[in-house]
Design a protein that fits this description.
5-stranded antiparallel beta sheet, 4-stranded antiparallel beta sheet
Length: 266
């Protein structure tokens, strides 16, 4: 846990986290992009960011300060059957909720308790893990209660449900399939109607444009993390049948070829 972080090290860069991240805004404000949706963050806003989704800081105030907790990849699968066992998909389309001062104080106290458990010199690691899962389950139920009215409003929107289901499916399957018809079929929608409903919540982006932007973002992240990796290796990692196919795809979405993007980073 990091109790008080001032500002954000990188602005304007897409990031995809492999873990669950808990964020509590302590002071100031920020604007972020989450899965191509802009979100305003203010004091006492609490977020649960699920793995695999795209996060980008647009801008923040000089006094922007927040607490952050990383939940390791090893615990994510256990969380899905314990703390996040129901309605966790709502954090994919509405990751943030606003808390009162008292609610924010309670959440911070719970985060500090989890930090104490994680850093305790218990010899029994399994016991420590179970204690953390128990506290996460308690915290999750509190957050469910705090955001119940917000969730009720979101649940009434058909386009929001469709959007979050689509995003989750793309995160899971984008390496093997980047075809809108495939996802429309999984969601049991006729493709044209699916696109119409999707645009109601996606700021005008079509499903295909969303897929393309997500894939291009993943490609950039891979190339940024390992500059020595070849374009051919990146294409293989993303599931493209050939390097040429990947290069054409990347050029169509970004306006430049992958190697040109790599050269710009040198």
């Amino acid at each position: 846990m990091e109790k008080e972080i001032h500002g954000y090290p990188v602005t304007g860069m897409d990031v995809v986290f492999p873990h669950v991240i808990l964020l509590l805004c302590l002071r100031g404000s920020a604007r972020v992009m989450f899965d191509m949706q802009e979100i305003a963050i203010e004091k006492n806003d609490f977020g649960i960011l699920m793995p695999g989704h795209v996060f980008r800081l647009i801008a923040c105030s000089e006094d922007f300060t927040y607490a952050r907790v990383f939940i390791s990849a090893e615990m994510v699968s256990e969380l899905k059957t314990h703390a996040f066992s129901h309605d966790s998909d709502k954090f994919n389309y509405a990751p943030y909720c606003h808390l009162t001062d008292v609610q924010a104080m309670r959440v911070m106290a719970l985060l500090e308790l989890m930090e104490a458990i994680a850093s305790h010199d218990l010899n029994d690691l399994q016991l420590r893990r179970q204690m953390l899962l128990s506290q996460l389950s308690v915290g999750y139920e509190f957050i469910n209660y705090y955001r119940r009215e917000q969730d009720k409003q979101w649940a009434e929107s058909r386009s929001v449900k469709l959007y979050t289901q689509f995003c989750d499916l793309v995160v899971e399957h984008y390496r093997e399939n980047r075809n809108v018809y495939y996802y429309a079929g999984l969601l049991d929608y006729e493709p044209r109607y699916f696109s119409k409903v999707f645009r109601q919540y996606s700021n005008g982006l079509s499903p295909l444009e969303w897929i393309q932007q997500y894939v291009a973002t993943q490609a950039k992240l891979i190339m940024d993390m390992d500059p020595k990796q070849t374009v051919k290796e990146t294409a293989y990692q993303l599931g493209f049948p050939t390097t040429a196919n990947f290069c054409r795809y990347f050029k169509r979405v970004t306006g430049i070829y992958p190697q040109e993007y790599k050269d710009l980073k040198i």
